[in-house]
Q: What sequence folds into this?
């Protein structure tokens, strides 16, 4: 994305924007002056885009330490009458929920939107949670845009609604909106900024809970008419169709595509819902009454479908309702044109079989599992952990230890060929779970593995808990100075903030020492022997221990090497010495180490290799020599 | 020569980190400037590198709906890596569509560990020939190195795609889009574009004779 485009004062111009960039542009058009977030796929680019233009636009943008703090920062700004936004991935809402569940009672003054980027299929997430349910749970209005254009406009509509009813408004995105690029027509940017003004005679609180709960309902009810008229709701019917389709958000796109695929565009009437909580019941009721067959297409749980059935009871009508509950659509995973078409075909009783990908009989296509980057410090640290356990416990690391994983690139450690982790739950849960394992009486070493950003996000309380309650665990924090997984957003150890301004470098070891962790060690994972030794010592110490393995993210390191004029030259494999034992390939699992079948020895892919030279150090034959690159930083 | 079709679907496939996303943005940018509606979406695993990536590009006069390509409907598959060209073609290419393949191989970790075999390149191309209307090969990585940076292989592939003349966008407009969307190393990228373009033009001319 060209940053200039986001700030362009060109109403009516069409530009190509990522859904998340469109949300950011929408925030600017809506006059949002404070935005905060914690990065997480598929939401990260929203704040990233705003951060890149924050200074020029004269707004405040921050990467907060976690989603709860992000919500609170944006919430406070909205109390002063400014417009504000916080954005996060779906599971981020869980972290923020403690505050949201009272802020809904206390309300806002300036318009505030919360963007929840859900991830049906869990492309880059540990679950598929549908946060429309959270909108119902917190009783906040919820919009669900369908296209990048609507993504942009939803922030403006959301802020207007929020101001009118004095409640934060949730905007639900999904992967296939946040990460889709499309044409977006720009609107005008506001001319004037607002001045903050906190009404000091009001106390913003949930107390007394009963009164404030009533207030929440009054506020919500006050905008029911407005929700019916939100432009993202749309009826497309000419009369005479056989089936009425009710679709929300991205589902609408698949319905249009499916109708075309099946050539039944004239047979379906469509009610497109852009408001999903509270449902625009008047609009829905009149649509429901027009059809005997209803097909509900929504991404996630049967959220609308269930409510429709209740609505039909009140209306005393009995259309057949098909969707996820009736098995026409799957309850898990992401929708696509074929799935939606198959459901529609069944309802219309027409023959449709989605085209099947070609299966080859004589060629086997190998899988290509994801891997960590060549030269990634996690690879070296994973290796060191396994070696330390092997040496200390004399046996298979998998059987001789418990390793609790966490959320980050290193989450790949869960999968083959790494097979590193026994648990992988949520941010900070590596240390939290390790705490629990430690008190069960398990004899083997218990290791918690996480990155520095995850540590700051949710790892500090469980570490303090380990010290306070005497949990015998080894916490290994891989500090790569950046939030790599979500696209290199800065972390507290980066030395700069969201808008690129210098920030104090906060070191994990300083926090650990302040928490009175009895064993704290900082190592360089590229110094393989030193790292193995440190982990062995930590295991032997039988006390809460923290090892900080510090190495810049390999991708950043490649850039840094280029800047410093260090050329990346892969090490050479000595043909005479390489016995083809594959130790480097199977133990380090660096994607740059490739197997030369004809010569039965190891080669190094010159384009992938980063020159970390960890393979030189671990080769049992000392057959890998020389090279330069990020290992020289 | 440019096709006057008003609706085209392209799948760009490759390995995470190869720049499929940037390539699809450049094409989308050019398409919007030419007055088309566009939807582009990427399918991948987690957020990391190294896995198979398919960028779905749908361009049309009028509305485009699904951000995902319906199965077996892509007019063109642009494969940044041979095996991934095959994988995507089996799923998305319509019968008789075109395939452009970068012949530079990136081995999956499974192959390096010896858990799987990488099919011979000739076999991959043979299968592609049997399902596509045309298959064009080039070593985009080599050409990118010639242009000045191996990273520019994705721009070489855009040049190659432009030379195919199947897009409703002029080659020159794609070239301008490269300049506009990638402000860094403009000269390297334009050289990369031209090398990809020429490689395919030469190939197609030979076939015409």
A:
């Amino acid at each position: 994305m060209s940053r200039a485009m986001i700030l362009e004062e060109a109403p009516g111009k069409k530009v190509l924007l990522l859904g998340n960039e469109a949300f950011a542009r929408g925030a600017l058009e809506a006059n949002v002056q404070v935005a905060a977030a914690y990065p997480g796929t598929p939401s990260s680019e929203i704040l990233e885009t705003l951060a890149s233009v924050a200074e020029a636009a004269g707004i405040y943008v921050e990467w907060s330490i976690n989603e709860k703090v992000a919500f609170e920062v944006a919430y406070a700004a909205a109390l002063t009458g400014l417009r504000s936004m916080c954005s996060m991935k779906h599971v981020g809402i869980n972290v923020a929920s403690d505050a949201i569940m009272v802020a809904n009672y206390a309300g806002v003054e300036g318009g505030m939107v919360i963007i929840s980027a859900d991830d049906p299929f869990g492309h880059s997430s540990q679950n598929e949670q549908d946060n429309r349910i959270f909108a119902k749970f917190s009783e906040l209005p919820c919009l669900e845009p369908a296209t990048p254009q609507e993504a942009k406009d939803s922030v403006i509509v959301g802020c207007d609604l929020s101001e009118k009813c004095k409640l934060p408004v949730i905007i639900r995105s999904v992967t296939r909106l946040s990460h889709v690029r499309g044409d977006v027509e720009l609107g005008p940017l506001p001319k004037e900024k607002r001045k903050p003004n906190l009404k000091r005679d009001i106390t913003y609180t949930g107390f007394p809970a009963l009164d404030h709960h009533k207030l929440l309902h009054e506020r919500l009810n006050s905008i029911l008419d407005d929700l019916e008229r939100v432009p993202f709701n749309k009826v497309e019917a000419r009369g005479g169709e056989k089936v009425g389709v009710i679709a929300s958000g991205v589902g609408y796109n698949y319905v249009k595509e499916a109708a075309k695929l099946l050539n039944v565009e004239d047979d379906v009437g469509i009610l497109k819902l852009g408001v999903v909580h509270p449902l625009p019941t008047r609009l829905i009721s009149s649509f429901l009454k027009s059809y005997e067959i209803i097909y509900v297409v929504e991404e996630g749980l049967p959220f609308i479908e269930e409510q429709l059935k209740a609505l039909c009871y009140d209306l005393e009508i009995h259309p057949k309702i098909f969707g996820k509950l009736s098995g026409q659509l799957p309850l898990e995973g992401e929708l696509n044109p074929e799935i939606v078409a198959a459901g529609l075909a069944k309802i219309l009783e027409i023959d449709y079989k989605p085209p099947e990908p070609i299966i080859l009989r004589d060629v086997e296509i190998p899988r290509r599992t994801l891997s960590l980057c060549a030269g990634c410090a996690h690879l070296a640290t994973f290796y060191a952990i396994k070696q330390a356990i092997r040496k200390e416990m004399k046996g298979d690391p998998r059987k001789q230890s418990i390793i609790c994983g966490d959320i980050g690139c290193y989450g790949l450690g869960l999968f083959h060929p790494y097979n590193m982790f026994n648990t992988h739950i949520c941010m900070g849960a590596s240390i939290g779970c390790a705490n629990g394992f430690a008190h069960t009486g398990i004899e083997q070493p218990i290791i918690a593995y996480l990155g520095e950003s995850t540590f700051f996000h949710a790892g500090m309380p469980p570490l303090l808990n380990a010290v306070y309650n005497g949990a015998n665990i080894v916490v290994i924090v891989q500090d790569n100075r950046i939030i790599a997984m979500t696209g290199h957003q800065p972390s507290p150890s980066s030395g700069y903030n969201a808008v690129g301004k210098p920030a104090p470098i906060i070191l994990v070891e300083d926090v650990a020492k302040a928490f009175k962790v009895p064993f704290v060690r900082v190592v360089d994972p590229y110094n393989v022997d030193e790292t193995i030794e440190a982990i062995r010592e930590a295991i032997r110490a039988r006390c809460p221990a923290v090892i900080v393995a510090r190495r810049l993210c390999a991708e950043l390191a490649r850039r840094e090497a280029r800047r410093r004029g260090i050329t990346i030259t892969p090490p050479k494999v000595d043909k005479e010495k390489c016995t083809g034992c594959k130790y480097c390939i199977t133990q380090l699992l660096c994607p740059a180490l490739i197997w030369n079948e004809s010569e039965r020895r190891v080669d190094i892919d010159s384009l992938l290799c980063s020159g970390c030279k960890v393979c030189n150090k671990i080769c049992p034959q000392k057959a890998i020599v020389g090279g330069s690159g990020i290992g020289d930083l | 020569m440019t096709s006057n079709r008003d609706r085209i679907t392209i799948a760009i496939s490759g390995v995470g980190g190869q720049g499929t996303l940037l390539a699809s943005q450049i094409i989308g940018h050019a398409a919007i400037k030419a007055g088309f509606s566009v939807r582009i979406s990427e399918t991948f695993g987690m957020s990391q590198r190294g896995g198979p990536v398919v960028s779905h590009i749908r361009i049309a006069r009028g509305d485009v709906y699904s951000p995902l390509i319906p199965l077996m409907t892509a007019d063109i598959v642009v494969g940044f890596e041979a095996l991934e060209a095959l994988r995507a073609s089996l799923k998305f290419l319509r019968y008789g569509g075109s395939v452009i393949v970068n012949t530079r191989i990136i081995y999956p970790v499974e192959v390096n560990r010896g858990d799987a075999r990488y099919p011979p390149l000739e076999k991959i191309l043979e299968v592609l020939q049997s399902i596509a209307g045309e298959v064009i090969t080039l070593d985009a990585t080599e050409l990118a190195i010639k242009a000045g940076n191996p990273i520019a292989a994705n721009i070489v592939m855009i040049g190659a795609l432009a030379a195919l003349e199947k897009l409703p966008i002029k080659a020159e407009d794609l070239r301008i889009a490269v300049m506009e969307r990638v402000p860094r190393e403009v000269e390297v990228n334009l050289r990369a574009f031209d090398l990809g373009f020429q490689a395919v033009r030469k190939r197609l001319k030979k076939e015409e004779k």
Q: What stands out?
A: Chain B touches chain A through 64 residues (CB under 8 Å). The longest helix of chain B spans residues 186-208.
